[in-house]
Write a structure and sequence with these properties.
The chain is mainly beta. It has one domain (2-137). The chain has one helix spanning 18-21, and strands at 2-5, 8-10, 26-29, 36-44, 52-55, 72-80, 88-89, 97-100, 112-115, 126-129, 134-137. The strands form two sheets. Strands 1, 2, 4, 6, 8, 9, 10 and 11 form an eight-stranded mixed sheet that branches.
């Protein structure tokens, strides 16, 4: 299983330049395939423009780059300081599923998840959240 484990992921530092200040980067861009794991990692300084801790689907920057199926990325034991104001920026094909094993990502408890918003997510277990670029749902959904 491909994974990121025990990492410090920093959006920008005090010695940044104008290029970074004008960008909207992602700390981790998830895989285009199943079975990717991010665990025991800490995120800092994602608090400008639309910078986000996560982006989705590496190398899926246009419709022809991937099929239309969703991919699941598993998350566990993540820490975000107060400077992380946006957690996800979804991209093509806008169907990623982020499965939060312990609730450290969504703050909704174990086995919660995040995904882009679609009409079928209008259920009591899910809530639209701008900082997640979609919905987060508790583990009962």
């Amino acid at each position: 299983m491909a994974q990121i484990n025990d990492c410090l992921i920093n959006g920008r530092s005090n010695n940044t330049d104008d290029f970074i200040n004008g960008a909207f980067p992602r700390g981790v861009i998830t895989a285009r395939t199943e079975n990717f794991l991010v665990k025991n990692s800490r995120f800092y300084n994602f608090n400008w423009n639309k910078a986000a801790a996560f982006g989705t689907c590496s190398h899926c920057f246009h419709p022809a780059a991937t099929d239309s199926g969703a991919r699941t990325t598993t998350l566990n034991n993540l820490t975000f300081d107060a400077t992380v104001t946006r957690f996800i920026n979804y991209q093509e094909p806008w169907v990623e599923i982020l499965h939060d094993l312990d609730g450290s990502f969504t703050k909704l408890g174990p086995n919660s998840w995040a995904t882009p918003y679609y009409g079928h997510h209008n259920v009591k277990e899910c809530q639209f959240r701008e900082e997640y670029d979609g919905v987060i749902c508790d583990g009962t959904a």
